[in-house]
Amino acid sequence: MSTPSSSPSALDPTIAHRLKRDEHGLVAAIVQQHDSGDVLMLGWMDDEALHRTLTSGRVTFWSRSRGEYWRKGDTSGHAQYVRAVAVDCDGDALLVRVDQVGAACHTGARTCFDAGGVLPAVVGDRPDGAGSSEPSGVPSTGVTTGATTGATTGAGVAGGAGR
Q1: Structural domains in the chain (count)
Q2: In this structure, is residue 2 part of a structural domain?
Q3: Residues with Cβ < 8 Å from 99, sequence gap 6 or more?
């Protein structure tokens, strides 16, 4: 895996100090549709990618496979326009709320989780019996599972690059 350069970034030092990066200098960036709450994808950012995202209004990631920065949508037209960016309590993840144009996934699916599909999992129940099978505040990815067949629906994959 290629890692970003160690050259200094223009990222505000007070923001940079709050981040806990992996051994490659990256922080996970969860991308969420601002109005529906759908989780669209996960990407990786170093300080420079975060700086570009915070100052340009468009989301920039570090591509671990290509070893370069990429601004979402520059080749596909499926751009992500920044609405808000937050850092989690530990500083090891970012939440980037966006206005997504077109598919978020490079497969052409609306979300990378639609493309990946639902895994079989036992649904837990709260001890007090309150709540539902989907926790409050955790948005659906838009993928549904057939009740009797276990078949995944809503995960169709169309052609086209999402980058």
Answers
A1: 1
A2: no
A3: 33, 34, 35, 80, 81, 83
